[in-house]
Amino acid sequence: MENLSLFTKRSVAIDFFKYHYAKKNRSYLINLIYLVLTPQKELGWVAKMPDTGKLFFSAKRNQETPIDSLKNYKIISPESVFLYKNHLFLYKYNRTTKDCYIVYLKTVNSVTYPERLFPEKDFKFCLVKNQQNQIINCAWVAEDTQLAVFQDEPQYNPKEIVLEPMELGKEFEFSGKKWYTCTEKGKCLLADLPII
Fold it and tell me: Which positions ≥6 away from 42 have C-beta within 8 Å?
């Protein structure tokens, strides 16, 4: 996955926008800077000016644009999962630093991530196989939704693959590693095994 062009920590976005504010302490600014997805599916930061009502949007580092409103913008809450450019990310809160980070989920190893994104859907773990019966990825699958487990693997055409549901406790090999499915707190997850 290519590097994100925006600030990946809220504290850095706060530092970038704080020259707009009279009060510059972090505890004040933390509730005025949001991570958002625009109606055009751009990811960025929004700074809200409570005195003037102005809004500033930054989709790239060190660039900002005034915007009229947050209508149709989706504010991403800390500890939520979101899709951006067909990849799954976590907007993670760190209790120690009191900061929030954008985390790229290179391996979507737990069903809890797709469930947080689509809480109304029931996901199962499937192997993604090509027409030659080779595993090319794994996916969390529900009705009309597929989320790739190994996000750095090449994209595949859903019409040219076979989805094979996998039972808990079963093992398989993929990308030079041995994997198996298990449960943790009643939720399905994928874990790796040492190859001996």
Answer: 59
β partners of residue 171: 180
Rounded to whole angstroms, the Cα distance separating 65 from 196 reads 55
Residue ranges of the chain with pLDDT lower than 50? 1
Q: What one-letter code names the amino acid at 11?
A: S
Number of residues in the chain: 196
For the whole model, what pTM was predicted?
0.90
Are 103 and 92 in contact by the 8 Å Cβ rule? The answer is: yes
Q: Which residues pair with 179 in a beta bridge?
A: 172, 192
| pLDDT tens column, 62-87 | 899 999 999 999 999 999 999 999 99
- Structure tokens belonging to residue 38: 């625009």
Count of C-beta atoms within a 10 Å radius of residue 21: 16
